[in-house]
Amino acid sequence: DRCSPPETNINKVSYKILPYCTKQIEAYCKKNKTDELKDIPKDLLQSSRKGYAENYHEIIQEAHIKNTPWINKDISEQFKKWKMPFYFMDFETIQQGVPIIKNTKPFEQVPFQWSVQKLSQKGGVLEEFSFIDFDDQDIEFNFLKKLIEILGDKGTIFVHNDPFEKGVLNKLKEKTKMKSYSDQVESIIDRIEDTL
Fold it and tell me: Most CB atoms within 10 A, among 79, 82, 103, 118?
């Protein structure tokens, strides 16, 4: 079953699940020939990052060792800053060695697909929207235009890695044919929240 976790023994969870894993942790694991999160000393797990709980690496390790969830005590404050409707957005891009899509360059990331789920109200049903295009030479223009239509001008947009989606949007708004959408793109970027 593709949805089953690869490792069910909680004590064998790899340190590689840590977001923004440090070189010190990687060096420790290499030197000590271990891959297991539980084996990393607490002093190496001290971590600080804007938007993350203090010592989030240690929190992740402890939650896995104890097999218990961790919920930030300030979560209710976080929810207050998010505005409905909620959107959950993901992009896919391709790179072309020899560009066949006009106005693109070799190995430039070209967006060709997005998926958006929309939650209009608390307890509501998710609406699903998607875009995929390989055939049209205006792929980037169509990608952006349809995305703007779906996202509207209000609500929080959640993405899993905001530098990627923001980077794609920033590059699109600079293209000649899409400069007229630049204010709308900026508004979308301002509404993005990273789930990492």
Answer: 118
Tokens of 192: 């993005």
Q: Give, in order, the Cα–Cα distances in Å from 105 to each of 123, 133, 143, 169.
A: 44, 18, 18, 17
**DSSP β-ladder status, 127-132 and 156-159:** unpaired
In one letter, which amino acid is 154? K
What the block records as the tokens of 128 is 């699903």
Q: Which of 182, 190, 135, 140 is nearest to 162 (CA)?
A: 190
| Preceding amide of 163 cis, omega within 30 | no
Q: What's the rounded Cα separation, in Å, for the pair 183 and 186?
A: 5
Closest CA to 149 of 129, 133, 132: 129
